[in-house]
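Hi everyone,

Forwarding the result from last night's run.
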Amino acid sequence: MENKITVNICGTDYTLMAEESPSYMQKVAALVDARMGEIMASGRISRMDAAVLAAANIADELLKQQSSTENLRSQLKGYLDEANRAKNELSECKREIFKLQQQLAKK
C-alpha cells in the first residue's frame, strides 16, 4: 500500500508517494532539505543548482556506501569459506581419531 505525505523542501511543498512509512519519507525529505540548505547557505546559488549539487553529493555517498557494502560482503564470504574449510578439516580429523581409536581397541 502506498503512503502519501506532503513534505517541505527549501520552502516548497512536495507530495511524496511511496511504500515506505510516512516517518521514513519525512526523514528523506529532511535530508534533502538540510543538504540543499547547506549548499544554499554557502553562497549565492539557485534552488535548482542547490538541488543538483545536493543530489550529486547524496549519490556520491550512496555509491561509496554500496562499494563499502560490497567489500564487507566479500570479506564475509571469505570468512564463511574459511570457516567451512575449518569445519571440513575438523570432520576429517574426527574421522581419523575414530579410526585410530578402533585400531588401538583391536590391540
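The chain has two helices and two strands.

Cheers,
N.
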